[in-house]
Amino acid sequence: MSAPDPPAESRRNLAGPNLVGMGRAALAAEMAAIGAEPFRARQLWHWIYHRGATDFAAMTTLAKGFRERLACDYELCRPAVARALVSADGTRKWLLRFADGQEAETVHIPEVDRGTLCVSSQVGCTLNCTFCHTGTQRLVRNLDAAEIVGQIMVARDALGEWPSPAEGRQLTNIVLMGMGEPLYNYDNVAAALKIMMDPEGLAVSRRKITLSTAGVVPMIARVGEELGVNLAVSLHAVNDELRDRLVPLNKKYPIAKLLDVCRTYPGSSNARRITFEYVMLKGINDSPAEAKELVRLLEGIPAKVNLIPFNPWPGAPYECSSDAAIAAFSDIVFAAGYSAPVRTPRGRDILAACGQLKSDSIRARRTATAAAPEGVAGMPVLG
Ligand code: SAH
Asked: For the segment 173-202, what is each residue's pLDDT rounded down to a tens digit?
């Protein structure tokens, strides 16, 4: 079921640097550079991230002349909504188009007591996990901080959640589980998260944010130390031979190394557990013996397990495990003392569920891309 497509015109006016996506320090430096007083930066912050202003003219606490100057010298630019879809279950998906014509998707999943926004960190993904649709997309680049934080702002626009509501929000939680590997784009992801967490702006608590990684081992401790958000790890297999096939990043960072850094993840405790995601693939990784091995591997880690029924996509080489196999797997993990909920697929009808996101980015240009940590990802930009 789809809603009518809104116009896809970009709101970019090419006036100058985009203030959306600048952190507090950068915004203060920018204002200082044009001779504005320090409190102007604070006022701007309030208008951009608390009130959601899309236009300098709306910033009525600023003098008219100053607003006009800002409008000449800066942009206030969100990603354009190229397409908006609504699932029969209420899940909404936005295909966002960025200034260079490339695209990524954002998904809002409403539940009774909360609403989660699933945010993308890259256009496409370099990891090529064999069960994930995003991995089949050829064009890949990092999103910048404005493009990441802009996803929340676009969702807030559509949900009518400005100024940032103190309570009763439809958008309460954020998961970095959309397109891309967030830890191959750490700097932009960290900058965007710091903006999202600022209490005087978008004001999403770090406890309501979860970053999911396929296991970029050298970056994981930094997530806990610098950002303090919840960690989710896409494990999906209990031996290296299988995980090498499902998550090829495993060849670089095998299971034992990955679990070692999880064991010492800063801030984790029994009250704040690391989530281990495990996609249920029929006849591949779903046996009772593998459930028992999973329990053995997780010993000593404050963990919970999230079982994800495989979400199919056109041409996918796997099938979802049977309900009985998933239930048996969950029972074994649960009996060992771990919570092991089965994730309900949401928005499958609009290809909005885990691993179904893929966009046909329209222009295959050779744009520069940021380097991944240690240059691991190589970030191919295929033309
Ligand atoms: N790159 C990050 C975040 C993106 S994927 C990561 O790997 O964690 C978010 C979750 O969806 C991951 O656990 C991923 O493995 C899972 N996933 C990917 N494709 C899927 C599919 N087709 N069905 C179910 N889950 C899938």
From this structure: 999 999 999 999 999 999 999 999 999 999
Q: Is any ligand 1 atom within 6 A of the Cβ of residue 354?
A: yes
Mutate to test the pocket of ligand 1, among 212, 223, 245, 306 (most ligand atoms within 8 A of CB): 212
DSSP single-letter state for residue 320: B
Q: How far is CA 63 from CA 55, 58, 71, 277, in A?
A: 14, 11, 12, 51
Report the catalytic residues. Answer: 105, 354
pTM over 0.85: yes
* Residue 108 to residue 212: CA distance in whole angstroms: 16
User: Distance between terminal CA atoms of the chain?
Assistant: 33
Is 118 touching ligand 1 by the criterion CB < 6 Å? no
Tokens of 103: 């695209």
The residues pairing with 97 across neighbouring beta strands, listed in sequence order, are 80, 103
By residue count, the chain amounts to: 383
pLDDT of residue 376 exceeding 80, the answer is: no
CA distance 361 to 375: 24
Q: Strands 92-97 and 141-142: what pairing?
A: unpaired
132 lines ligand 1 (CB under 6 A): yes
Nearest to 351 by CA among 76, 131, 134: 134
Q: Are 307 and 290 in contact (CB under 8 A)?
A: no
371: left (phi over 0), alpha (psi -120 to 50) or beta: beta
User: Which ligand 1 atom is at minimum distance from the Cα of 232?
Assistant: 8
Both tokens assigned to 140: 């890949």
